[in-house]
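Design request, tokens follow.
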């Protein structure tokens, strides 16, 4: 990731199968929007403890704490007040135990943020960051001749309703394979359209002076993973074997290549997949003992019916560089 000029990572978990994420990121110079996965199970407390510990041990690594992902009612299982309460507990613990003030927010679908609902407004008022998951691919109104139209129209409403300083696009992307959604059959998932939307999003960020938004995701899902739709396997900028797709057309064998620099002067990226293997420089990789093997991944929301953490979905994101570097 460092070789490809990624600088920040968004995760859905602060600790995964007993592995704290922050020490790995800190070792390799990556900053985190660290997730706290919400669940009614006992291991939720481990998520909170790991997040607080991360701020204590690696304060320069933690850019923000994001509590929950696509889980607020009516779409999700959690009342807005529940998320507000959990954010307050984490915010207070960080302040009391470290003396630091770290932004604490939540990530929800754009559909929920656009609801005219006092509960959603309360959630927004109590969040330092409003993470917005926005996919024109799943919007039947998407027009390939005006690829930024959905982004522009939604962003206009969001910025009228919420403070611009709080808003962050925490997921967006376009798959390079699979089948179109039944409710948006004209949105074809292929490499050409993925490249079109990637370039569109970079240009959109630049036009808005944006920095710190996230792309979904770094790697395709593995073929042996069990996902709800075939399109879910193909959102990566890289294949599941870590080959760069034609979306980017990068020569990853050349470190500090000028073309590579230009290509990645855009958003940050979401890492959601099987093996997190941080690579630094040209040949130096994370030791085998530091490689974390994740179970099947999906864009599942927090609070899914997962009877144990071993069956919970993995969702980690990577941040693309800022639009100021265009």
């Amino acid at each position: 990731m460092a070789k490809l000029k990624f600088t920040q990572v968004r995760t859905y978990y602060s600790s995964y199968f007993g592995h704290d994420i922050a020490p790995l990121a800190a070792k390799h110079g990556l900053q985190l929007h660290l997730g706290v996965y919400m669940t009614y199970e006992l291991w939720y407390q481990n998520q909170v403890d790991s997040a607080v510990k991360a701020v204590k041990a690696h304060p320069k690594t933690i850019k923000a704490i994001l509590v929950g992902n696509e889980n607020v009612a009516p779409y999700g299982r959690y009342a807005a007040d529940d998320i507000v309460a959990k954010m307050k507990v984490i915010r207070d613990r960080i302040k009391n135990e470290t003396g630091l003030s770290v932004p604490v927010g939540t990530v929800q679908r754009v559909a929920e943020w656009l609801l005219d609902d006092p509960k959603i407004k309360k959630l927004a008022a109590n969040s330092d960051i409003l993470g917005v998951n926005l996919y024109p691919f799943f919007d039947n109104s998407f027009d390939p001749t005006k690829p930024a139209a959905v982004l522009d129209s939604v962003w206009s409403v969001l910025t009228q309703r919420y403070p611009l300083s709080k808003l962050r696009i925490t997921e967006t992307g376009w798959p390079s394979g699979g089948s179109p959604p039944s409710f948006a059959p004209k949105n074809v998932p292929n490499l050409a359209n993925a490249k079109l939307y990637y370039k569109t999003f970079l240009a959109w960020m630049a036009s808005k002076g944006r920095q710190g938004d996230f792309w979904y995701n770094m790697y395709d899902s593995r073929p042996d993973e069990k996902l709800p739709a075939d399109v879910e396997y193909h959102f990566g900028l890289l294949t599941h074997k870590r080959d760069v797709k034609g979306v980017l057309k990068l020569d990853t064998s050349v470190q500090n290549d000028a073309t590579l620099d230009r290509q990645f002067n855009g958003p940050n990226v979401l890492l959601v997949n099987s093996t997190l293997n941080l690579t630094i420089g040209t040949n130096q990789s994370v030791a085998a003992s530091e490689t974390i093997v994740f179970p099947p991944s999906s864009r599942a929301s927090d609070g899914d019916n997962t009877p144990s953490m071993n069956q919970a979905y993995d969702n980690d994101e990577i941040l693309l560089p800022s639009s100021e570097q265009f």
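Comment from the thread starter after seeing the answer: thanks! The longest helix spans residues 80-98.
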